[in-house]
Write a structure and sequence with these properties.
about 160 residues; mainly alpha; 20 helices; about 0% strand; 2 domains; ALTTAQ_rpt; single chain
């Protein structure tokens, strides 16, 4: 199927694709999906996206993924996002991440989150942060961590803070 063919599929046609078919789409085909089509993907279809496919999603398409669907992505799939896309995650999308997903975020991905998203981390999400992650937080991001969330971060992760962050 050509990329132009994927772009003209109706939302009903896109939602009828199996997880195997979704996983078989090229990155060019995935990036050609309309925002409404991406928003309509089922949880199973979203979970089937490969890391290269999640990396190929446009910022607008990524924003259309429902929070319940985003929660099925692995940290590896999320880490495949560009820093621009990671920064564009909505507060609701970041809040929907599981502690396993948060603990698996790369320093680059975590560092790309907006200060609003860092401030929106729950206490359990903050507690999942590792020392490798906290060392990469910017001074500005650290300033937005709520005191209750900061108290939940392990001593090891706190000790990783440097004088420059």
């Amino acid at each position: 199927m050509e990329t132009t063919d994927v772009a003209i599929l109706s939302t009903a046609q896109v939602t009828s694709l199996t997880a195997t078919q979704v996983a078989g789409l090229s990155t060019t085909q995935v990036s050609a999906l309309e925002t409404t089509d991406v928003a309509a993907l089922s949880t199973t279809q979203v979970a089937a996206l490969t890391t290269t496919q999640t990396g190929a999603l446009t910022t607008t398409a990524l924003g259309a993924i429902e929070t319940t669907d985003l929660a099925v992505l692995t940290a590896t799939q999320i880490n495949a996002l560009s820093t621009t896309n990671a920064a564009a995650l909505s507060t609701a999308q970041v809040a929907a991440l599981t502690t396993t997903q948060v603990a698996g975020l790369s320093t680059t991905t975590l560092n790309a989150l907006s200060t609003t998203n860092v401030a929106g981390l729950s206490t359990t999400q903050a507690a999942a942060l590792t020392s490798a992650q906290t060392v990469g937080l910017t001074t500005t991001q650290l300033g937005f961590i709520e005191t209750t969330d900061l108290a939940a971060i392990t001593a090891t992760a706190i000790n990783a803070f440097t004088t420059t962050n």
